[in-house]
Amino acid sequence: MRTPYDFEPGCIRRVSVLAWLAMASMVTTANLACAGENFTVSSADLSDGGKVGPRQIFNDAGCKGPNQSPSLTWRNVPANTRSFAITIFDRDAPGRGWWHWAVANIPASVKSLPENASASGALRKLGAIEARNDFNIDGYGGPCPPPGNPHRYVITVYALNVDTLPLAQGRPAALFDREISGSALGSAQITVTYGR
Q1: 21-30, 114-123, 157-166: the lowest-pLDDT one
Q2: Burial 32-48 (b: 16+ CB within 10 A, else e)
Q3: Between the CA of residue 137 and those of 51, 58, 73, 88, 102, what are the distances in Å?
Q4: Which of 41, 85, 59, 73 is nearest to 141 (CA)?
Q5: d(CA 105, CA 128)
Q6: How many whole angstroms separate alpha carbon 125 and alpha carbon 144?
């Protein structure tokens, strides 16, 4: 008489294979859960929904800030990301909005930028290129809206599927935005406000 614990020799192999497949399935499920985490951006200088920090304010046109680009850190980037780009856009400016910053060709190995990366030369050392913003300046131009209601500034980090975009330093930020959008695998945003 056989008991539930009696196995034929081939049965043990089948049970082992089934156990191995079950474990592999659990590992795959765990990897999918990690891959499903959202691409995010954060800053030590700014918080989503908060106000622009004093160090990020423009230094002309009636504004008296030091005009330093914010520190940024991004996490959970999409698979197959080959480079990054960053834009800062004032969606409340009259007309079609106002470009404050556009950067492209940030290497995929980079996951953060320090404060003042634009003026300090840190971006150039990485091989990144910066657009001409709507102040007609290459690089970062901080918030400086007309007096009145606060404006919203959308900071976006893009994960791109190319190593470099066919852009040159000093091209208009709107051109950068077009090229960036065409190569984006995903993006992460924070929105901050500033008024005077």
Answers
A1: 21-30
A2: eeeeeeebebbbebbee
A3: 24, 12, 24, 14, 11
A4: 59
A5: 5
A6: 28
Q: How far is CA 122 from CA 56, 69, 126, 130, in A?
A: 17, 11, 7, 12
Instruction: Round to the nearest angstrom and report the end-to-end CA distance of the chain.
Output: 90
CATH architecture of residue range(s) 40-194: Alpha-Beta Complex (3.90)
Residue 118 makes CB contacts below 8 A (sequence gap 6+) with 68, 69, 101, 103, 130, 139, 140
Q: Higher pLDDT residue, 22 or 188?
A: 188
Domain ranges in the chain?
Answer: 1-36, 40-194
- For β-strands 40-42 and 72-75, DSSP reports them as antiparallel
Task: Quickly state the pLDDT bin for 36 (edges 50, 70, 90).
Answer: low
